[in-house]
Amino acid sequence: MSQADQALVDTLLTTLGNAYAPYSNHPVAAVMECPDGQQFAGSNVEVAHYKGLCAEASAISAMITAGQRELAKVYVMGPGEHLCTPCGDCRQRIREFATPSTQIMVLSKQGDVLKTYTMDSLLPDAFGPEQLQAVKRFLATPAPPAATRAGALFPPALRSIAQHSSPQWPQYPGAP
Ligand SMILES: [Zn+2]
Question: What's the count of helices (H) and strands (E) in the chain, helices before strands?
Fold first, then answer.
């Protein structure tokens, strides 16, 4: 276990202190760091109807608003010594702007790095923008003759595209 940079810990602690979590009493702070070193902080924001905003989502919103689009590092700090990992929704949000080398670090309130993840270890075989690009290529493929379509829900072109696109392409449920 290592101690994070003190300036970063100070930012996270300030952000944690600004969190609005009157219902769960579980404040969370996140900092998104871009490849150029710029950092964007966010805390969780709860609402009486219980559809609040996670700290990671707040920080990503600030990052996007500033015109940034790529995550180099993600830091998440919970209110104690437990492992306050990003929720499922936030793993997908982080995935949207992550690269294979993005590091996701979960810190204790004391500033210790409890665990470091890669995107693939945090959300294995994730669905991402690449999959949608592959579907666009599929849709741009000319349709096979009607006789071929009659016997199969998905034409062989789909299988071909799946094999030649991202190695993370998921098994397509129902594909022949
Ligand atoms: Zn979340």
Answer: 7, 6
